[in-house]
Amino acid sequence: MTAPVFQDITGIILVGGKSRRMGQDKALLSVQGKTLIERALEPFQQSFEQVLLIGDRPERFAAFRLPVVPDLYPGSSLGGLYTGLYHARTEHIFVTSCDLPFPNPAILRYLCDARGRYDAIIPCSSQGSEPLFACYRKSCLDAMRDRLEQQRFSISSVCSSLRTRLVPYQDIASFDPAGTAFLNLNTPEDIALLS
């Protein structure tokens, strides 16, 4: 196995969502023969030396032999993002949520290469910004903690106060010919469409 591409970025996979609309744990759902967590892990383990899973009930993921860190601020994606950034031993993290069935390694690497001096590098799709497939610097921690303590959970709101680069979809579209990089699974119907 080749060495990970980025030794100075920690991969963060959010696995703590409540999955209310899905009715079961999304991370362990199977799509086209692989669980969603396995689909996220493949490009992450190829790209990052360290990968952390952020969520509760670590016994669910014991087979993956990875650190599972409980949310410091349970109940929101921002809380999971903050927790991953807080616990990372690197200056940068790259985050994904476990409900993206086709995490795109070419887009991931493009965003990591573009991080420069920015606090956050966030891609855009036809639906808008995609803050849960993005690169963040530890300089975001204070602003994130402030929002969490104010019970304000919008990641986009936090990023508006930081040095954020939004990457237009046309800059990364060539890496996504099938148009599935930001497909998000929330309901059993979403899963059925991929069967």
TrEMBL record:
It catalyses: Mo-molybdopterin + GTP + H(+) = Mo-molybdopterin guanine dinucleotide + diphosphate. GO terms for biological process: bis(molybdopterin guanine dinucleotide)molybdenum biosynthetic process. Its main location: cytoplasm. It is found in: Cytoplasm. Keywords: Cytoplasm, GTP-binding, Magnesium, Metal-binding, Molybdenum cofactor biosynthesis, Nucleotide-binding, Transferase. Pfam families: NTP_transf_3. The N-terminal domain determines nucleotide recognition and specific binding, while the C-terminal domain determines the specific binding to the target protein. This is Probable molybdenum cofactor guanylyltransferase. The lineage of its organism: Bacteria, Pseudomonadati, Thermodesulfobacteriota, Desulfuromonadia, Geobacterales. The gene is mobA.
